[in-house]
Each structure stands twice: as C-alpha cells, then as structure tokens.
TrEMBL record:
Protein name, UniProt field: Nuclear transport factor 2 family protein
Coiled coil: none
Record-annotated DUF4440 domain positions: 44-122
InterPro entries for the chain: DUF4440, NTF2-like_dom_sf
Length: 135
C-alpha cells in the first residue's frame, strides 16, 4: 500500500469516525487522533484554539453542544502526502443537533497531518461555513 493509500484509508476510517462521534457529542475519538506534540491549532467554524490544552477544551465544549448526528460525509477535493506530512481539502456535510435543534451544515475544511510513530495525527484544522449553511 502506498503512503497516499495508507493515508486515505486512515481518513476514511479513523478520521471520519472521530468526526461523526464529535457531532454525536463524544469528543474522545477526536482527541485521540489529534497530535499531542506542539504546535497544534484550530481556526474553526465555532471555536479557535492554539496548543493542546486549548484544543482539548474546545473539543469538550463542542461535544456538549452537538448530539444526534444522523449523517456525515467528507467530500475530499484534494489531498497529498509528502514524507511524514499530509494535507486534505474538502467539504464536510452533516446533519446533527446543535443545542437540541436539528441542523444540516456544510463546512469547507482544510487539515494538516503529521505522521508520529507510524500513526497519522491531525495538527491543524481550518473550517468555515458555506452559504446558508453557516454554523
């Protein structure tokens, strides 16, 4: 399996599963796939964070807001792997409840990854809403 195939398999399983869990109110899997090695950062659709402590806090706060995820799709536009670094660019389309109100949202998301001890980890995320689907 090539590095690109290995990375894409990880995205399609661990990353997608972690995002679905977050949108269902469980931040645990998302915390697991994020790097514990600085620097890490999020310029998010809902919250920003710089450093692991802020990141964990942001994930915990978001998990309290989300529930009842019924759909999550990641539509990759582009991705690449260069050595122990990778990136992905695409759209995330999902239906979840935010503070108990069902919502369907589309985000543009760009993420940067680093391979650490043979495992892919997220190190940066930038996401924003698209059109009428603003968070």
């Amino acid at each position: 399996m090539s590095d690109r195939d290995d990375f894409l398999a990880w995205v399609d399983t661990a990353l997608v599963d972690a995002e679905r869990a977050m949108l269902d109110g469980d931040e645990g899997p998302r915390k697991e796939i994020w790097s514990r090695v600085e620097p890490v950062s999020v310029l998010g659709a809902w919250r920003n964070a710089v450093g692991r402590d802020q990141l964990v806090e942001a994930f915990e706060v978001l998990a309290m807001v989300f529930s009842d995820c019924t759909d999550y799709q990641m539509d990759l536009i582009s991705f690449d792997v260069v050595g122990d670094m990778a990136y992905s660019v695409g759209y995330e389309r999902f239906t979840t409840s935010i503070d108990g109100e069902p919502r369907t949202i589309t985000l543009r998301a760009t993420q940067v990854y680093r391979r650490e001890n043979g495992q892919w980890r997220v190190v940066h995320r930038h996401a924003d809403g698209v059109g009428d689907h603003q968070p």
